[in-house]
Amino acid sequence: MGEKEFNSVCGFLKSNKIDFKILTHAPVHTSEEAARIRGKPLSGGVKAIVLKSSDGKVLQALVSGDKRIDLKKLAKIIGTKRLSLASPIEVLEKTGCEIGSVHPLGNLSGLTVYMDKKVLENEIVDFSVGLHTHTIEMKCADLLKAINPKIEEYSL
User: Fold this and answer.
1) DSSP bridge pairs for 63
2) Most buried by CB count within 10 Å: which residue of 16, 87, 129, 139?
3) What is the overall mean pLDDT for the chain?
């Protein structure tokens, strides 16, 4: 599971002439495990979280690995009453990825992507990409080009 998404993301980046590195490692399931095995600061990781709004919309929110999402603040920004985490089944159905391996290119799955401003403090970012054993490392500026997110401030 996730191999199709890994290949899709890599193909998208290559076709758009975006430089990236693939890091292969033992399986990881959390941002903390990923940072430790990558030998990088937690803040350089990008967590990609799939959310549902009270009016039924599904979206993706990106935060630095050392941050959490302020759901109330993001709901207000989006203009919805409430946001909640999508269930593992909903995440898999929408992204093709299991929780812990969701990549930040939600736009490839038709999701509106919101990025917290704190992510922009990193010149280089790392993120899972469909597989618990693979990480993509790239310039944050290139990630912005790849996803064209709505940039807001909503992390804790």
Assistant:
1) 47
2) 129
3) 94
Order of strands, sheet of 124-128, starting from the edge strand that comes earlier in the sequence: 21-24, 134-139, 124-128
Q: Rounded to an integer, what distance in angstroms lies between the CA atom of residue 144 and that of residue 151?
A: 10
Which two three-digit tokens encode residue 146? 């790849």
Fold of 3-152: YbaK protein (3.90.960)
Say if strands 83-85 and 58-64 run parallel, antiparallel, or are unpaired: unpaired
Domain boundaries, the chain: 3-152
Mean pLDDT value across residues 59-63: 98
* 21 touches 138 (CB < 8 A): yes
Supply 106's token pair: 């939600």
Q: Phi then psi for 132, rounded to 5 degrees?
A: -75, -10
Measure the CA–CA gap between 151 and 26, rounded to whole angstroms: 32
Element (H, E) at 78: helix 71-78
pLDDT digits (tens, 9 = 90+) for 92-133: 999 999 998 999 999 999 999 999 999 999 999 999 998 989
Residue 1 pLDDT > 80:
no
Residues, the chain: 156
Q: How many angstroms separate the CA atoms of 114 and 117, rounded?
A: 10
